[in-house]
User: Which sequence fits this backbone?
């Protein structure tokens, strides 16, 4: 009888790697929420734009991969800023539910636009990266790179927020918006910049995910709900919480998916979320309740 | 008095429609409008009080699938299946609702919890693919194989006209429920709650129970709608009756039509269904996604410029007094 | 340096200031005193453009402020230390000071400015990495004032620095104001603590229900009947 299930270990490790990317996605959403107090329901659809951008640049226009990545990140950053200026700003002072609804509208819009423009086919980068072999365990390099990049990005973001003037201003505005002008900071400008950063993080997530998953118009539905739930579980706005929650979720999905069937992994993760909501409504590390 | 007369006339006209030799397709459209209006109105019972649920797809899915599964696998008649589906939806609503309300989970958080719920239901349906047919969906076994015009036991009818009347009755029932809730003490309690929960609690409003009652009612009716939808379409699929797509569709239609007005959700149904139809006719064939594209765009426009919906805006202009008061925006 | 001419302002339908005129010359320390609700805080917010005017002019060194956007006021050399301190609670002391030096001109001299701030407020240096929200009221007030000074302003606006503080701390606060004065800063201070503030300023205005009721040299006002009338039992 096998005492040690090596494939279980593989699932756990894969889960860790997956968690890295989820954590990155959660970071973008948390940043925007923590600073501007809005949840972008269409966040995953922004990511989808990034994925399509990379896909087309790389496969159709034969742009070198890293350049395509850079373009993807830039495009989604711009989309983030546009989203804020065109859609969020007009409803910022109304009932909070309007922000959820209006970004829900953008979700429909973007999904449909992608369907109209690109059709429903699944598209793949066509890159086949090998896997790291550790005995009987296979860890896809694409997943390893993604996790490492995500980690680096998170460290960069942390340093940015902690050490730069702009980063400090972004942290400050969520603590006291009204006196920002007294410091010479225009709140509107900070919001737009934060939105662009949120978009850039989604864009980076897109680059990492497009290595592993096919793009199609409904890809947002695969990653969107999970990202929200991770953020809420970690405490909306709490970046460390989101980070931790991402890894927990990833483990449920990975191990649950291994022990049972793929969907059950997700079901378990979601049920865990619901249960945690009742045990700790403000999220695991939430304070911003 | 005059308004009651108008109602009677309108209902009579509607009732006469199938008899007037209307074609099958227009009749189908009307049935869809009535069924969806029923569901949208059910959602708006919660939505108008600030309990915005992004998870009603869960209840609809439960209703549709419980009935179909019991019928297909165990031959249980929908007459029993429907109440069971509704009961399950009610149980789920309480399981989620009670802790949410008890722990004052509202706004963003509540919306996201309901979103999780609808996804859980969708995923469970897909995961149980051996029983449910997974993403491919499933068709209730027909009881009319021998050419019978109907089967009461199976609640299946070959003649659309019958469904039309069923849908009509349910739609009217939903409107009646809406009116009853509007006129009841619960309405004032919910308004108080939606504006200032603590104050409401301090004057003796049982916040948790009031919210729960509305939620259960809304969930039960939505499940019923899901079951009817399944029986009519004779096909259910996790993405058409559950999941975030359906949940958002419900929200959008009600917002478009007007969340705070009795006929608002109905207007929303008319609007969205006719939009889809109109596009299909104009373009000549089914352009996948064109209607959603326009929905999405319009939803954004609506929220920014017409947060009270089409009907709400019209009524505002006329200065009518029987619209409900929207939940107050909390100080930010 | 600063001049208000016939300024009226308010919040929506509620008017808080009626035809207020005053001036602050370079190097002076001027106080605006008055009872609660007189509009003193509004006055400062009008100067730093957090609140708009419905009438009148605000001139800083001859330059009209009326059209200037709120976040550019600090570039003109006006630093506002708001009522209730308003530190960023979850930023450290040093990070709060950093925010005070956000404008490019101040950023370039951040190191220097930081050292002079710590020289003026040694207690802050000890607590430089402490979260601002965890400090005592008096320390927070010091930090808020220091933050205002980080941009080396031409004019420092102080809104009720003694509010909510124990008498011993209040004493220290006014000592600091005195020192700031001595270093050459021009100060406009709004206060309810009449006795203490009149000891550290040159001139003062009495603001009641949105109107200037009296003005003059600090010593005169301290002795005047108007003040005594307005402040029975303060």
Assistant:
């Amino acid at each position: 009888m096998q005492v040690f299930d090596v494939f279980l270990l593989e699932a756990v490790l894969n889960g860790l790697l997956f968690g890295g990317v989820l954590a990155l996605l959660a970071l973008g959403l948390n940043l925007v929420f923590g600073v501007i107090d809005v949840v972008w329901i269409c966040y995953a659809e922004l990511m989808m734009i990034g994925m399509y951008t990379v896909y087309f640049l790389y496969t159709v226009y034969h742009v070198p991969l890293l350049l395509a990545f850079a373009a993807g990140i830039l495009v989604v950053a711009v989309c983030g800023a546009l989203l804020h200026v065109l859609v969020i700003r007009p409803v910022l002072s109304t009932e909070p539910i309007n922000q959820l609804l209006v970004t829900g509208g953008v979700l429909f819009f973007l999904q449909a636009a992608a369907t109209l423009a690109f059709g429903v086919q699944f598209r793949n980068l066509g890159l086949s990266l090998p896997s790291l072999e550790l005995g009987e365990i296979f860890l896809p390099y694409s997943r390893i790179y993604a996790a490492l990049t995500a980690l680096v990005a998170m460290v960069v973001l942390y340093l940015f927020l902690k050490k730069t003037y702009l980063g400090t201003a972004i942290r400050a505005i969520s603590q006291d918006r009204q006196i920002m002008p007294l410091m010479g900071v225009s709140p509107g400008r900070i919001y737009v910049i934060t939105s662009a950063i949120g978009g850039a993080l989604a864009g980076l997530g897109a680059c990492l995910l497009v290595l592993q998953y096919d793009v199609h118009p409904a890809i947002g539905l695969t990653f969107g709900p999970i990202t929200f739930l991770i953020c809420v579980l970690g405490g909306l706005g709490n970046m460390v919480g989101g980070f931790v929650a991402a890894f927990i979720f990833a483990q449920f999905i990975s191990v649950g998916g291994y022990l049972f069937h793929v969907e059950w992994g997700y079901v378990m993760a979601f049920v865990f979320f619901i249960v945690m909501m009742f045990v700790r409504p403000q999220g695991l590390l939430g304070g911003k309740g | 008095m005059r308004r009651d007369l108008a109602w009677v006339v309108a209902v009579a006209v509607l009732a006469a429609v199938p008899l007037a030799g209307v074609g099958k397709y227009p009749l189908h459209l009307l049935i869809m409008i009535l069924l969806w209006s029923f569901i949208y109105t059910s959602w708006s019972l919660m939505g108008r009080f600030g309990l915005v649920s992004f998870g009603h797809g869960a209840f609809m899915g439960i209703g549709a699938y419980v009935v179909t599964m019991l019928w297909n696998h165990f031959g249980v008649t929908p007459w029993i299946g429907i109440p069971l589906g509704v009961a399950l939806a009610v149980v789920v609503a309480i399981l989620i609702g009670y802790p949410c309300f008890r722990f004052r989970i509202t706004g963003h958080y509540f919306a996201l919890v309901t979103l999780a719920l609808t996804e859980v239901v969708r995923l469970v349906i897909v995961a149980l693919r051996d029983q449910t047919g997974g993403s491919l969906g499933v068709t209730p076994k027909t009881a009319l194989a021998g050419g019978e015009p109907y089967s009461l036991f199976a609640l299946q009818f070959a003649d659309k006209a019958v469904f039309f009347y069923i849908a009509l009755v349910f739609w009217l029932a939903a409107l009646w429920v809406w009116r009853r809730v509007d006129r009841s003490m619960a309405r004032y309690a919910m308004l108080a709650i939606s504006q200032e929960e603590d104050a409401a609690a301090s004057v003796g409003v049982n916040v948790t129970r009031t919210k729960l009652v509305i939620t259960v009612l809304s969930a039960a009716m939505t499940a019923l709608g899901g079951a009817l939808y399944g029986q009519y379409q004779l096909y259910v699929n996790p993405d058409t009756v559950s999941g975030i797509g359906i949940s958002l569709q419900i929200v959008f239609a009600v917002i478009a039509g007007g969340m705070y007005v009795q006929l608002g959700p109905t207007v929303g149904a008319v609007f969205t269904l006719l939009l889809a139809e109109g596009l299909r006719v104009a373009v000549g064939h089914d352009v996948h996604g064109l209607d959603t594209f326009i929905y999405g765009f319009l939803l954004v426009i609506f929220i920014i410029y017409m947060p009270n919906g089409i009907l709400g805006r019209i009524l505002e202009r006329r200065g009518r007094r029987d619209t409900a008061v929207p939940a107050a925006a909390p100080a930010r | 340096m600063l001049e208000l001419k016939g300024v009226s302002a308010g919040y929506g339908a509620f008017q808080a200031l009626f035809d207020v005129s005053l001036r602050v010359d370079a190097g002076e320390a001027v106080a605006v005193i008055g009872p609660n609700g007189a509009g003193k805080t509004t006055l400062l917010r009008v100067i730093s453009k957090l609140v708009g005017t419905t009438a009148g002019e605000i001139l800083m060194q001859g330059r009209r402020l009326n059209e200037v956007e709120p976040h550019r006021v600090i570039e003109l050399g006006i630093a506002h230390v708001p009522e209730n301190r308003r530190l960023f609670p979850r930023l450290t002391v040093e990070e709060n000071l950093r925010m005070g030096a956000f404008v490019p001109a101040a950023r370039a001299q951040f190191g220097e400015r930081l050292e002079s701030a710590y020289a003026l407020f040694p207690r802050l240096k000890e607590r430089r990495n402490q979260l601002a929200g965890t400090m005592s009221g008096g320390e927070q007030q010091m930090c808020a004032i220091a933050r205002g000074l980080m941009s080396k302003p031409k004019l420092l606006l102080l809104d009720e620095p003694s509010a909510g503080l124990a008498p011993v701390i209040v004493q220290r606060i006014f000592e600091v104001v005195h020192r700031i004065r001595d270093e050459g800063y021009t100060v406009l201070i709004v206060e309810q603590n009449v006795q203490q503030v009149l000891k550290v300023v040159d001139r003062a205005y009495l603001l009641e229900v949105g109107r200037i009721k009296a003005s003059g040299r600090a010593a005169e006002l301290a002795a005047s009947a108007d003040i005594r009338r307005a402040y029975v039992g303060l």
